[in-house]
Amino acid sequence: MYNELKSKQKKIAVIGLGYVGLPLALEFAKKFSVIGFDISEDRIEMMRNNIDPSEELEASAFADKDIVFTADPEVLKGAHFFVVAVPTPVDEHKVPNLRPLIGASTTVGKAIKKGDYVVFESTVYPGATEEDCLPVIEELSGLKLNKDYKAGYSPERINPGDKEHTVDKILKIVSGSDEESAEEIAKIYGEIITAGVYKAATIKVAEAAKVIENTQRDLNISLMNELSIIFDKMGIDTRAVIEAAGTKWNFIKFFPGLVGGHCIGVDPYYLTYKAKKLGYDPQVILSGRRINDGMPGFVAKRLVQKMIQKGKTPQKTKVLVMGFTFKENVADIRNTKVVDLVRELMEYSVNVHLVDPYADPNDVVHEYKLPMMDSPSNNYDAVIVAVNHKEYVGLDTDYFKSIMNGAPILMDLKGVYNQDVAEAAGIDYWRL
User: How many angstroms separate the CA atoms of 265 and 157, rounded?
Assistant: First the structure.
């Protein structure tokens, strides 16, 4: 397969062109002939015009690439190496939603041929590739694994908004349904991944490795969040504690905050779902999830307490929330925890204004039914800096005082600003 792809006798198809699939497809298109497939014709049209719908890539990233963008599944029949990079979200009950993955497997099943390969990149629980996806492909194609076609799993490690650790510069885990496929898949990815590839022992090992990467980070942050709640009751600055503890060589610095996005706040539920299916009720992982999911409520309650202490009635207050996307310097609002913070404040009847230099106001209204302002107003009782966009990092105390009224409160959820400077300026400063 590798040699035929390298000589462009055969094509690679990347299915799902979101923030994971598109950079990967364009990277492949530097060395191979690629078909980029997405079910959204509108998104495909944007990519044909050198526009990344996720707003991660510049137009120059599309230049001189051997790639065809299509929403027509018939075109996929011209491919021989299929890469699936579709979303794997959870539903409102925190249960894995495999519909996009099963849909992509159905698409592959109708296009795959004898001798072809399929590699999954979507984050799943261990066993999903072989137990949920491949049976769909085999039922539709009539092919048998390792006899008629090969399969693999290579988990995505894209970090949205990170211009340094791009797809080619992140070590890639690969795995295959047998030794031959693992070797071929490693060589194919090795053509584009300058950081190198790591061959996992099995597909399930690769799946498990991916899901615990984000579960570990989720738990580490949940510990810091719980500590921040405890230290807040003690009147101790959590970040000062972390800096002090960080002077020990083996202390790892994690910081408290709102945990949203597609990975850290979602992936642990895939592991806990599978564990429960096997009769084990996970304790530590779900405890961490409860703490992190409860942080918006904790922040909202602390702000209301502060306003009441200053003689302010919540129903008569106006609060500005700065930042709505799930992380800094990106436009993506999916799975943002800021929405939970806003809704918690609204439960107290607080009048909330929302701004963000990256989020599309139409998307925010469509997705969350929340209006956004073009720019801040004034006379705010409090300001919450929820996301540390680069546009916010350089703001000084004069700016915040100019948009707030008497007894101003600044809640700095990302620890961007200097506490001593803020308090010296007469601002009641609080951070996680």
Answer: 15
